[in-house]
Amino acid sequence: MTKDLVFITVIGKDQKGIIARISNAVFKHNINIEDLDQKIMGGYFVMTMLADMSDSGIMIGDLKKELAQIETDMGLKIQVQHENIFKAMHRV
User: Fold this and answer.
1) Which CATH superfamily is domain 5-89 in?
2) Under a CB-based contact definition with an 8 Å cutoff, are residues 7 and 85 in contact?
3) Contact (CB, 8 A) for 38 and 50
4) d(Cα 22, Cα 7) in Å, to the nearest integer?
5) What is the pLDDT of residue 84?
């Protein structure tokens, strides 16, 4: 089975509930979190998530819109990027 991977990056002032809001948003669309790395750097929350959308019915553009609402609500910067675009941008 082929995976449909996206990278979700989140940066913003550290606050309660960031991981919960993002993970709930992907969970409700049957998106599987493959990997997650997060840390606090100088009071800022930084997270990178790799998620598989292959079992989801949502399109990446609609996911971006939904996460944009969380971005606004929590004062974060959230970026969603398909694996193919990420690979093309970082090809040596």
Assistant:
1) ACT domain (3.30.70.260)
2) no
3) no
4) 12
5) 76
